Amino acid sequence: MESERTTEVTCQYCGAPVRTELCPYCGKPTGLNTATATMDYPEVECKEAHLDFWGIIFPLIFAVAFGFFGFIFPIFFRDMTSEMPAMKLMFLPFMLIGLGAAFIVLRNLWRYLSVSMFGKEIEGTVYGYTDDVITYNDQPGQVCKIMVNSAHGKRFIMYQLKSVKKPYKVNTTLPLKVYKNCFMIIDKHKYEIWE
């Protein structure tokens, strides 16, 4: 069980709810020690389950192209029995790249299908956005903080948007499907802000 520390107090001078050591309204000390306080809810490590070009189609192109060159192409050279060990070594990197790409495709498909079929429907609220460590054209990518109620209390799902846009309004309630360490937003384009 996690120890709960005080993260919000009521200012004894003006009565405002505050989360800082000094009241932003009256400037008096509140008695809250932010150095030891947990100011946010814990994060849940979740991966998004979705089908897109970079997760399915692009690795599938590599799986088919390198798989053909690594597995099928050596069949044409099977008459050259004396050079076959060298040919197998030459085609081995292509086989490995094809297998790796096929693994990525199957993993993403399995993640999407398992969440779609076995996932539990819950609701999450967009709490806000933080900057990602990845930049796009010298602008930091955005991470959407989605607050969900779990069996262990409130938690954040950190949803990497892989872009600089903020597609959801803060305090928007999103329907989610969660299964093990994967989640997906149900009909996510319905809740996006159109600019």
Termini Cα gap: 44 Å
Order of helices and strands: EEEEHHEEEEE
Helix share bin = 25-40%
Question: How many helices in DSSP terms?
Answer: 2
Q: Spatial order of the strands in the main sheet?
A: 3-7-6-5-8-9-4
Topology of this structure?
Elements: E1 9-10, E2 17-18, E3 43-44, E4 47-48, H1 53-72, H2 84-118, E5 120-136, E6 139-150, E7 153-160, E8 173-179, E9 182-185
Parallel strand pairs: 3-7, 4-9
Antiparallel strand pairs: 1-2, 5-6, 5-8, 6-7, 8-9
Fold and architecture overview:
This protein has 195 residues and is α+β, with helices and mostly antiparallel strands. The chain has 3 domains: 1-34, no CATH class; 53-116; 120-190, no CATH class. The protein is 28% helix and 29% strand. The chain has 2 helices and 9 strands. The strands form 2 sheets. It has a 7-stranded mixed beta sheet with strand order 3-7-6-5-8-9-4, with helices on one face. A two-stranded antiparallel sheet has the order 1-2. β6 and β7 form a beta hairpin. α1 (53-72) packs antiparallel against α2 (84-118). The chain is elongated and about 90 Å long.
